[in-house]
Model the fold of this input.
Amino acid sequence: DAKTTQPPSMDCAEGRAANLPCNHSTISGNEYVYWYRQIHSQGPQYIIHGLKNNETNEMASLIITEDRKSSTLILPHATLRDTAVYYCIVRVALGSGNTPLVFGKGTRLSVIA
Amino acid sequence: GAVVSQHPSWVICKSETSVKIECRSLDFQATTMFWYRQFPKQSLMLMATSNEGSKATYEQGVEKDKFLINHASLTLSTLTVTSAHPEDSSFYICSAREPGTFGYTFGSGTRLTVV
Done:
């Protein structure tokens, strides 16, 4: 699986958009970008994933650069409940096989009132 | 969506006793479950892969005789920490993937404190 690089921490004002970057310069053509988050003392929660097109769901938007070497997770209106560690994971489609997710260090997002 | 139920959510035990953590997939069958361990301010570290009806596969450095995994049915995997010591105090999390879906679902985690 390709390696990812994320900033260790970020702050965001409540109500503002939170933009979390992720570098994955060695991503392969068949690898997707997945985002999970972990709120303190809870299990990780799936947010969104994408291959090359930008994606949006009720939680967030995922912007992937054209060369696919980096991506940005966008929380459009961050709330205090979005304070968590956000993990960017790159790997082949999860629908194939039963290999585990491998977590990096992630970005600790603090949403400030 | 898929739900993985994990309990207990927290447990305190004395040194050299054993603790069992259960992980159940609700409304779907999980032939494979994964167990992670997380120390404070660190990321999740994969401990083992639990396969229904067969032996678990352990990651390097994880003692299989200490962390006993049983996956006796398609909806239940258990992790037993045997002869626990204070250094085993950690946050243990399980996960599974609902067949035909693209995401993994995680349990809510178990905070183990060994005193």
